[in-house]
Amino acid sequence: VWGHNFVNGLLGTYIPSSTGETYRYPERLKYAISGNRNATAETIVIKFCPFNSFSSSTTQATLMTTDTKERLIRSYYTTGVICLANHTDNTACTATTTTAILKNVSYVIASTFQHSNPYQRVFTNGTYQAQETADDFTDPAWGDYFYVGSLANGGDSIYGVIEAVAIFERVLTDAEITAVSNGNFLLNEHSLMLGE
């Protein structure tokens, strides 16, 4: 497994040592929203490997969030991952995976957001898991940045590796989500790719 290692909310680089694990903390993964994100319709795909199972964790593990008004993807207490289109203003518009997230296993979570029903869908490893059909969301009035691996303040960081992130400015089809989940990135597509 290769990717970005998180320790105490900051990106950490592992340094091999005979006396124990040592990490170097260069920066939090923070990216500009302008030109990279679409509040009205988008698909977010995150490949990650947690170092603890989400069911045994005592804190939430954030995979991605935004500042000001939150589009949030994070662990959901005892099972999988919850995706919230606008966590600040519309907490009812959510979709949660049904796959238990185990330690030291890589997963690909994909979530779609749009203003037509289904408003939100979520997939694990390319397989459909759940959708939100009852509640639409208000477009989040985002600030300047989005964050990968922790909240904007560095809290609720994932204990694990973020292997890759892809953000598309439209809702992908099921076949496209399966292709991206299998590592086949879409060519000629306006998207933001981080990692792999």
Notable traits:
196 residues; mainly beta; nine-stranded antiparallel sheet; six-stranded antiparallel sheet; 15 strands; 4% helix; globular
Question: Brief overview, please?
Answer:
The termini are close together. This protein has 196 residues and is mainly beta.
Please tell me about this protein's structure.
This protein is mainly β. Helix content is 4%, strand content 43%. The strands form 2 sheets. Strands 1, 2, 3, 5, 10, 11, 12, 14 and 15 form a 9-stranded antiparallel beta sheet that branches. It has a 6-stranded antiparallel beta sheet with strand order 4-13-6-7-8-9, with no helix packed on it. Strand 2 (10-15) and strand 3 form a beta hairpin. The longest helix has 8 residues, at 174-181. It is globular and about 35 Å long. The model has no long low-confidence stretch (mean pLDDT 83).
Oligomeric grouping of the chains? single chain
Q: What is the CA-based Rg, rounded?
A: 16 Å
Per DSSP, the total helix count is 1
Summarize the amount of helix as a percent range. Answer: under 10%
Q: What general form does the structure show? A: globular
Contiguous low-pLDDT stretches (5 residues minimum) are none
Order of helices and strands: EEEEEEEEEEEEEEHE
List the helices and strands and how they pair.
Elements: E1 4-7, E2 10-15, E3 22-24, E4 29-32, E5 42-50, E6 62-66, E7 72-75, E8 81-86, E9 90-96, E10 107-113, E11 120-124, E12 127-132, E13 145-148, E14 160-168, H1 174-181, E15 191-195
Antiparallel strand pairs: 1-2, 1-14, 2-3, 4-13, 5-10, 5-14, 6-7, 6-13, 7-8, 8-9, 10-11, 11-12, 14-15
